[in-house]
Amino acid sequence: MFRVLFLFLLFPGLILGVTPGKWSHIDKYVFGNNTNGPVKEIVKNASGQVVYSAAYEYDSSGKLIKETYLNADGNADGSTVFQYKDGKVVREELFDKDNVLLETKTFRYNPKGQIDLVEVFDRENKLLLKSNITSWDKDFVKSGQTNWPDSKEVETFTLIQDDKNPRALIQNIYNEEKKQIASTKFEYDEKGKLLTRINVQGEQERKNQLSYGPNSQLQSFTFHVKQNNKWELQKTHELIYK
């Protein structure tokens, strides 16, 4: 599937993750105020071969309502459908290539109109995880907690300013013993556009680099992994707009 399971981010103009180490450039057209984003995304491997693609559909107000995924052969590989109420997303459904429901996410809002609970269910409506957002700073999620009912595991996350770089934010993730298990660093330019995102989890390091057009629209981004202390390109995502 094109979207990562359990993915949830907020895009208040900047890209910030609620779930550790995961992000999607398209979520600002679901959770944020951006409208009418790209209509197609093409994913290429390091050799330049197309390995995946996605088509995006929007409603009359410019909100993203459906993502359709295609494999390297151009065959259907699933979809995601979004439902809104009063302009806010309340439900997200992930389907496989045969249009069978795989996963459902629901979103609850506090009296201020901010998301305070995200729940993920499998195809049998069994709760897979629950994320509580415990604090906000304007449009930014500052802290929260994720629970996995089956394993009883609990993770907490916080977002802080990088002391060494005023244009960088760091999201840290901790286990039940309050041991840091992962971190993600977001670096921005002077206009607030995300330039790089680096995720560290154990010995694994991953990086995204983003490129923008003259109108500040995101045109492409790359995915790298660190191997032998060098960043190796894995995939390039190209975006197409109307």
Question: Can you characterise this structure?
Answer:
A hairpin with a 2-residue loop joins strand 17 and strand 18. With 242 residues, this protein is mostly beta strands. It is built from no helices and 18 strands. The protein is globular and about 45 Å long. The model is unreliable at 1-21 (pLDDT under 50). The strands form two sheets. A 16-stranded antiparallel β-barrel has the order 3-4-5-6-7-8-9-10-11-12-13-14-15-16-17-18. Strands 1-2 form a two-stranded antiparallel sheet. The two termini are 24 Å apart. The chain has a single domain (9-240), classed as Beta Barrel (Porin), CATH 2.40.160. The protein has strands at residues 9-10, 16-17, 40-45, 50-58, 64-71, 76-85, 88-95, 101-109, 115-122, 127-137, 140-148, 153-161, 168-174, 180-188, 194-201, 204-212, 218-227, 230-240.
